[in-house]
Design goal:
Layout (H helix, E strand, L loop, with lengths): L6 E5 L5 H5 L6 H16 L4 E7 L7 E10 L3 H7 L10 E11 L8 H16 L7 E7 L2 H9 L3 E2 L1 H10 L8 E7 L5
Parallel strand pairs: 4-5
Antiparallel strand pairs: 1-2, 2-3, 3-4, 5-7, 6-7
Bound molecules: coenzyme A.
Coenzyme A (COA) binds next to strand 4, helix 4, strand 5 and helix 5.
């Protein structure tokens, strides 16, 4: 089924492999993942990849890989979520974006934002059996990716920042930054 904006997605199991090989987002490791690893991960139920199409574009416009996750929150993050202070949860249920990419010819045209709206809507509407309140990503530590997630309402995980401060050597620039977003927050 197509969204109002003309997007639709299919599980990787239903997409012709040669179609996947033509996809390029400008990061070879993410292109290679889609072409050579995503299907096996999907079939092993370790990460579900969906390939996104648009009615006016030939081939995939993007893809995303999701899996269940859980994240710890510090006191102020719990407060922001509006969770009663007496609620005791070791970790908060989440959906993790394992991979997300947009075709390089379409970047900066709003496709990534549309894709996020699509997946957030479906997480809210279809995850009726297993609860997830947050959406989590280990975002590549570059300005484009961090700018993208910040614009879409993701915040740096303060809990993860505290952990990193206490357990990693100073001056080492991390390859990724853990970020999360409340699924109830409007786009
Ligand atoms: C990151 C990525 C998914 C963003 O998708 P996109 O379709 O280009 O993003 P959009 O056009 O929807 O941008 C939405 C907003 O994000 C921000 N943004 C996106 N790309 C940005 C960039 N290169 N630099 C700074 N901000 C950026 C902007 O605020 C933008 O809004 P604006 O264009 O109105 O200013 C895409 O660039 C991509 O696939 N990159 C390669 C793969 C990758 O790095 N994936 C993430 C791994 S964690």
């Amino acid at each position: 089924m197509l969204s109002e904006a003309g997007y639709g997605y299919l599980p990787i199991t239903e997409v012709n492999p040669t179609t996947l090989e033509r996809f390029s987002c400008g990061k070879p490791r993410l292109d290679e993942f889609l072409a050579t690893q995503a299907l096996a991960l999907h079939e092993a139920r370790l990460g579900f990849t969906n390939v996104v199409f648009h009615q006016q574009f030939e081939g995939p416009v993007g893809y995303f890989t999701l899996a269940n996750d859980a994240i710890k929150l510090n006191t102020s993050e719990k407060f922001d979520l509006g969770v009663d202070e007496h609620v005791e949860l070791a970790a908060f249920p989440a959906v993790k974006i394992g991979r997300l990419a947009v075709h390089q010819d379409l970047q900066r045209t709003g496709v990534g934002a549309a894709l996020m709206a699509l997946l957030l809507g479906d997480i809210l509407n279809t995850a009726g059996l297993s609860a997830a309140r947050l959406i989590v990503v280990d975002a590549d530590n570059d300005d484009a990716v961090l700018g993208f997630y910040k614009k879409l309402g993701f915040e740096t995980s303060l809990w993860a920042e505290d952990m990193a401060r206490n357990h990693t050597k100073k001056r080492v620039r991390p390859a990724t930054i853990k970020m999360h977003r409340d699924v109830f927050k409007g786009l």
